[in-house]
Amino acid sequence: MKAVLQRVKSASVTVDGSLISSIGKGILVFTAVAKEDSEKDAESMASKVLKFKIWDDENGGRWKRTVQDVGGEVLCVSQFTLLASTKKGNKPDFHNSASGEKAFELYKRFFGTVQQLYGPEKVKDGVFQAMMDVALVNDGPKSTRPQSLTHQEEVTFPKRALMTSWEI
């Protein structure tokens, strides 16, 4: 399971012109379910999202408080495209994404766990597999990519690519 977590001042989901969900201060979490993901991954990601320290404390200490610490809200949005691979060219390949049924079940498990751990009144979501308009006002911006147990990967760059980018 992969996610992109963004600290927001506000965020909302609209489908076909109808407002589905909206939050004030909090986090917007885009989530993708991979073929090999399990219920354990969904539960791990839910816990990680709520424990992620993305706010400063009252003394200015950086990265000290969680969404729960600041009384923020959580908006969860399923987005399978986070698992896109472009290793074989420029067209995204989604073969690592879970099937629709499995993705739905594990997304429900993730969302339900976030609600259970934090409270249903604080946690909202979009519409699974719908074409959504997601609006947000980034706060910072502060965005990050927490990963579940299955997806503990290290991002590396070839030396030459780094040197070239600095030479430009």
From TrEMBL:
Name by which UniProt lists this protein: D-aminoacyl-tRNA deacylase
The enzyme's E.C. designation: 3.1.1.96
Protein's cellular compartments: Cytoplasm
Keywords tagged on the record: Cytoplasm, Hydrolase, RNA-binding, tRNA-binding
PANTHER family per the UniProt record, alphabetical: D-AMINOACYL-TRNA DEACYLASE 1, D-TYROSYL-TRNA TYR DEACYLASE
GO molecular function per UniProt: D-tyrosyl-tRNA(Tyr) deacylase activity; tRNA binding
Species name: Lineolata rhizophorae
Catalytic class of the enzyme: hydrolase
GO CC terms: cytoplasm
